[in-house]
Design brief:
Elements (H helix, E strand, L loop, with lengths): L19 E5 L15 E5 L16 E3 L6 H5 L2 H14 L7 E4 L5 H10 L6 E6 L4 H4 L5 E4 L4 H8 L4 E6 L4 H9 E9 L3 H4 L6 H12 L3 H7 L2 E4 L2 H6 L4 H16 L7 E6 L3 H9 L6 E5 L36 E3 L1
Parallel strand pairs: 4-5, 4-7, 5-6, 7-8, 8-9, 10-11
Antiparallel strand pairs: 1-2, 1-12, 2-3, 11-12
Helix pairs in contact: 2-3, 2-11
Family: Belongs to the zinc-containing alcohol dehydrogenase family. Quinone oxidoreductase subfamily.
Protein name: Enoyl reductase (ER) domain-containing protein
Pfam family, one: ADH_zinc_N_2
């Protein structure tokens, strides 16, 4: 969406994209405490993360557990903090509840599924492209084709509907999701995945998609006892000054990681020179989990019969890489 300019107050060009990264501390400000040169860290960055060297305020930096690889760390903060805060801070997920998550094969979707598994008897309904089903079928309770009539399938399995809907698609899915929401349920909007993948063809169709959201009748909401909420981690961090709240969430998530209850899902690693191809993979919905830009990775040479006609990809929002990297590896992620 950044590349396409479909965000509020887009930054001026030229710019370096990217909002999160992992690496090794090379320098410290005079007043920085709690960190040393050589510490392994992950961080949020207000742009500029797609780089070999990144500078960010200390309140956005977190130490990496000893057994977490750099690629895992680069895939950890955005996905898991977003998923955790939507589930527990906004929707108040509790034992026995049910959750519908769109784009279940993406980074946030997989983080949602893992966090739901930490609460007893939570039922997770997920939508995803059919070709991803085999890879993610064990992470959710019920999985549906994103293009099928999932409303009827959910109602067949849960006549009352669901307690929480996490919607990164918007548009027509908003009405469908609200129809599935139980009384006192929470519907959370947190992205525009259709715009990222190019399914929304223009700004006007994008506006029409959001207009579907804005048609929600507030009188009907209070009559049906339903809640609609929005969530933006970047606004929370960089515009609303809630870095302290986010740090507490990161600490809890690292605790869950150390207990081996959650683990970042890394789709693939790419050299910085391969960012165009990486974005195309996201654009084509080909990824399961997060794509990582690794500053030390050598680009894969093109074979003679490889296509060089890949179109420019849409900007972000999602198998596992082992722990074999040494401490000098510093992968970065959008």
């Amino acid at each position: 969406m950044v590349r396409q300019g479909n965000i509020d107050n887009p930054p001026k060009t030229p710019l370096v994209p990217g909002f999160e990264c992992s690496g090794i501390v090379e320098a410290l400000g005079d007043s920085v405490k709690g960190y040393e040169i050589g510490d392994r860290v992950m961080a949020f960055v207000n742009y500029n993360a797609w780089a070999e060297v990144v500078c960010t305020p200390v309140e956005f930096v977190y130490k990496i557990p000893d057994d977490m690889s750099f690629s895992e760390a680069a895939a950890f903060p955005m996905n898991f903090v977003t998923a955790y805060m939507m589930l527990f801070e906004v929707a108040n997920l509790r034992e026995g509840m049910s959750v519908l998550v769109h784009s279940a094969g993406g980074g946030v979707g997989q983080a949602v599924a893992q966090l739901c598994s930490t609460v007893p008897n939570v039922t997770v309904f997920g939508t995803a492209s059919t070709f991803k089903h085999e890879a993610i079928k064990d992470s959710v309770t019920h999985l549906f084709d994103r293009n099928a009539d999932y409303v009827q399938e959910v109602k067949r399995l849960s006549a009352e509907g669901v307690d929480i809907v996490l919607d990164c698609l918007c548009g027509d899915n908003t009405g469908k999701g609200l129809s599935l929401l139980k009384p006192l349920g929470t519907y959370i909007l947190y992205g525009s995945s259709n715009m990222v993948t190019g399914e929304t063809k223009s700004f006007f169709s994008f506006a029409k998609s959001w207009w579907q959201v804005e048609k929600v009748n507030p009188i009907k909401l209070y009559e049906e006892n339903k809640v609609i909420a929005g969530f933006s981690l970047l606004h929370l961090l960089f515009k609303q000054g809630r870095a302290g709240l986010v740090r507490g969430v990161v600490d809890r998530l690292i605790g869950l990681y150390n207990q081996k209850k959650i683990k970042p899902v890394v789709d693939s690693l790419w050299a910085l020179e391969e960012v165009k191809e990486a974005m195309q993979r996201i654009h084509d919905r080909g990824n399961i989990g997060k794509l990582i830009l690794d500053v030390e990775k050598t680009p894969t040479p093109l074979m003679a019969n490889d296509s060089t006609e890949t179109s420019e990809a849409g900007e972000e929002e999602e198998d596992h890489e082992g722990d074999s990297e040494n401490k000098e590896r510093m992968p970065f992620i959008q």
